[in-house]
Amino acid sequence: MKNLPNLLFVVSILVLGSFIVRHHGWSSYDQTKVLDFTTVIEESTFENPHTMAKVKYEDEIWSVYLAPASRMTARGLSADAIKKGTSARLVAYPHKTEKGEMRAERIYIDGEKYELR
After folding, report:
1. Which residues contact 58 (CB under 8 A, 6 or more apart)?
2. pTM for the full model?
3. Using CA atoms, how far apart are residues 17 and 53, in angstroms rounded to an integer?
4. Which CATH superfamily is domain 25-115 in?
5. Mean pLDDT of each 10-residue bin along the chain, 117 residues long
6. Quick count: other Cβ atoms within 10 Å of Cβ 4?
7. CB atoms closer than 10 angstroms to residue 109
8. Alpha helix positions (H), 1-112
9. What is the dihedral of CA 104, 41, 108, 78, to 10 degrees?
10. How far apart are CA 82 and CA 39, in angstroms?
């Protein structure tokens, strides 16, 4: 019982560390290579930590990381707005090492711009 606070501390550090390792920031994406294209959303997942979409870019399916669901909602984008079949213009950056992955800076739906960062 005396070691319980130490054990809780160690477990907390391990749990928090796993989130930090799994979280990817902007540094993993090449911001010198701007991808600006119009596509159709093939699939989407509207959840935290990041909303994701699958889109066709240069005849291949890419995974696109969007903003967290809470930020998307706060900026006026719902899950229904990015559902399968929706036409969207994306401004995104490719991942530096992961082929077929990008992170969107902004998305245009029905001509309306939504900043995602």
Report:
1. none
2. 0.77
3. 27
4. Nucleic acid-binding proteins (2.40.50.140)
5. 57 43 70 97 94 97 96 95 98 97 97 94
6. 8
7. 16
8. 4-22, 69-74
9. -90
10. 12
